[in-house]
């Protein structure tokens, strides 16, 4: 079995990173390593002096391993490795990806003492959770600035830093947008998920908007046609693992599930254990409706089903171009677009109590 190991490129004696063929500093790359070699590496801690180019460096770190996907594709899922903690089960992102694509954001990390993940914030402005199966991690968080942050004598905001030690059997939750760095203080094996709920789906869309602008800027710099929707969607998927079309389908499909639940609830087809569960469904529907309506450019006047939606009024040409290129079908693109408009209109009627 081969596993993905992230490797730091060696630096020259003067401390400067080696350069790639285009003159850019090379920091990390992914290499495939045999599992038995990796186990030996973690257990024996070989010194750097004995390593050659094909051996494992002290900074190597097995990360972003799709172990669950690996087992599921081999029909080895009879024995469940783990279940997602209840607090983290409301997951739009992985539910959609597992049902409609070949991807997911479920990972296993395994690194020796001293291996680390440098300062970053999580992909797509997602939440994340990390469970230590064995080992110990040192987390350093840098929360986003807030209006009540204190300032130093020069009038600059003081940097807030939160440090915690995660021990074996403990789970850490990472809020959306919080920058953090993590170091394994012991050999550590952990389970990590990125996930998105109706609460932070708006943050996810803001991340997509930022990346969309970055893609457009790159295309201009390379002399590419900025109106090429196929290239724009492909580059977006390459950057963050999600394109605009996928995002619209993810939100639309979850809204359909919620609308069917609400309809069954009112007709007696399903029962809720608590009022909190009912309000959670309506709250989620409201959050998703607001984001999807923004993408579809539906203002409050588009509040009925049928012909009164942007395909005949405020026509979103750019989104339809993107969907057309992804589906490779103009008819499918219009059907998906119209479905999204319909679920927004229905959600508004449910949320406002008109149905």
Distance between the termini: 55 Å
Give the class from helix and strand content and strand pairing.
alpha+beta
Give the % helix. 25-40%
Strand content: 15-25%
**H/E series:** EEHEHHEEEEEEEEHHHHHH
Radius of gyration (Å): 23 Å
- Strand neighbour order, sheet with most strands: 2-1-3-4-11-6-9
Bulk shape: globular
**Uncertain segments:** 19-25, 47-56, 301-309, 311-315
Figure out the total of helices. Answer: 9
> What average pLDDT do the residues reach?
83
The count of DSSP E runs of length 2 or more, i.e. the number of strands, is 11
Q: State the major sheet.
A: 7 strands, antiparallel
What topology emerges from the helices and strands here?
Elements: E1 2-8, E2 28-34, H1 35-44, E3 61-65, H2 67-73, H3 92-100, E4 106-111, E5 116-120, E6 127-134, E7 137-142, E8 162-166, E9 171-174, E10 179-184, E11 188-195, H4 201-221, H5 229-240, H6 244-267, H7 275-296, H8 317-327, H9 330-351
Antiparallel strand pairs: 1-2, 1-3, 3-4, 4-11, 5-10, 6-9, 6-11, 7-8, 7-10
């Amino acid at each position: 079995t081969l596993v993905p190991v992230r490797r730091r490129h060696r630096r020259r004696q003067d401390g400067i990173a080696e350069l790639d063929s285009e003159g850019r500093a090379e920091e990390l790359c992914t290499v495939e390593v045999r599992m038995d070699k990796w186990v030996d590496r973690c257990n024996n801690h070989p010194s750097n002096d004995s390593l050659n180019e094909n051996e494992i460096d002290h900074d190597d770190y097995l990360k972003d391993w799709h172990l669950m996907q690996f087992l599921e594709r081999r029909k080895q899922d009879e024995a469940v490795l783990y279940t997602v903690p209840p607090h983290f089960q409301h997951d739009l992102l992985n539910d959609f990806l597992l049902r409609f694509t070949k991807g997911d954001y479920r990972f296993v990390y395994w690194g020796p003492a001293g291996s680390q993940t440098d300062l970053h914030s999580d992909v797509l402005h997602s939440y994340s959770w990390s469970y230590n199966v064995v080992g110990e991690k040192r987390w350093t968080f840098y929360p986003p600035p807030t209006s009540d942050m204190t300032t130093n004598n020069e009038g600059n905001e003081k940097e807030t830093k939160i440090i915690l030690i995660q021990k074996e059997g403990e789970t850490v939750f990472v809020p959306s947008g919080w920058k953090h760095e993590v170091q394994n203080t012991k050999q550590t094996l952990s389970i990590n998920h990125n996930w998105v709920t109706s609460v932070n789906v708006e943050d996810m869309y803001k991340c997509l908007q930022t990346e969309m602008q970055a893609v457009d800027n790159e295309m201009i710099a390379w002399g590419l046609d900025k109106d090429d929707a196929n290239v724009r969607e492909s580059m977006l998927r390459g950057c963050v693992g999600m394109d605009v079309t996928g995002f619209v389908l993810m939100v639309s499909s979850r809204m359909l599930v919620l609308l069917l639940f609400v309809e069954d609830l009112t007709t007696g087809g399903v029962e809720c254990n608590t009022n909190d569960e009912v309000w959670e469904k309506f709250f989620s529907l409201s959050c998703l409706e607001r984001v999807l309506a923004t993408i579809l450019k539906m203002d409050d006047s588009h509040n009925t089903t049928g012909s009164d939606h942007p395909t005949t009024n405020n026509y979103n040409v750019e989104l339809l171009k993107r969907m057309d290129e992804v589906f490779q079908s103009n008819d499918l693109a219009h059907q998906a677009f119209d479905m999204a408009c319909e679920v927004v209109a229905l959600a508004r009627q449910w949320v406002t109590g008109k149905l």
